[in-house]
Amino acid sequence: MINPPSIKYELADKQQAIAAGGIGTLLQLTKQLDLRKEINRAIPLFKLHLPYDESDHVFNIAMNLLAGGNCLEHLEDRRCDEAYLNAVGAQRIPDPTTAGDFCRRFSEEHVLQLMHAFNRIREKVWKQQPDEFFDCAIIEGDGAQVETSAEKKQGIGINYKGQWGYHPLVVTLANTREPLFIANRSGNRPNHENSVTRTRRFTLT
């Protein structure tokens, strides 16, 4: 009974579209919360910004994930997508090699400082919530198996299921499902290992 007529779709020559259409709105939110300034203050990894600063790299990696990428190599797809570049308001973005160099500059302390920066921004958002939002905060810590396709990455391990990967500890605000802190662990470590110690360390100011 369902027998639609022939349909022809046409797009104007100047028409542009991307699947992750909400990226522009997210970047407007980061601008409103002054996230760029907070990131650059938390992880001063560069002496000069030529042309990218620390927040450019963090946003670049995050936007790549939101646009469907799952590794640094997929940044090349973003670099060649004119509609994506227009959506994020960039003439160019860091390539996979440059992004990889940025990641290698990180120490464990830098990662922790970056997570603290995100939580300081969260406090700005929480202050805008109604009074009942502050009645009770539930902090949860749990492990999550993250499988990878590699067997020689630093710190990788094999679990009892035969999966190669990592077993990070994720500390979240259960009320809003926000990840507050993440501590990476080898894939063959038990779920409870160091959870109490790390949860105590990961406290909000």
What does this structure look like?
The protein folds into two domains: 23-104, no CATH class; 131-201, no CATH class. Helix content is 38%, strand content 11%. The longest helix has 19 residues, at 108-126. The radius of gyration is 21 Å and the shape is globular. The strands form two sheets. The chain has a three-stranded antiparallel sheet with strand order 1-5-6. The protein has a three-stranded antiparallel sheet with strand order 2-4-3, with no helix packed on it. Helix 2 packs across helix 3 (54-66) and helix 2 runs antiparallel to helix 7. It is built from eight helices and six strands; from the N terminus they run H-H-H-H-H-H-H-E-E-E-E-E-E-H. The chain starts with 22 loop residues before the first helix and ends with a helix. The chain has 205 residues and is α+β, with helices and mostly antiparallel strands. It has helices spanning 23-32, 35-42, 54-66, 75-79, 82-88, 96-104, 108-126, 195-201; strands spanning 139-143, 146-147, 157-158, 164-166, 169-173, 178-183.
Which geometry do the CA atoms define? globular
- Rg measurement, Å: 21 Å
User: What level of helicity do the residues show?
Assistant: 25-40%
Tally of helical runs: 8
| Side-by-side strand order of the widest sheet | 1-5-6
> What value does the average pLDDT take?
86
Q: Can you write the helix and strand succession as a string?
A: HHHHHHHEEEEEEH
Annotation, overall tally of beta strands = 6
The total domain count is 2
Please report which band the strand proportion falls in: under 5%, 5-15%, 15-25%, 25-35%, 35-45% or over 45%: 5-15%
Structural class: alpha+beta
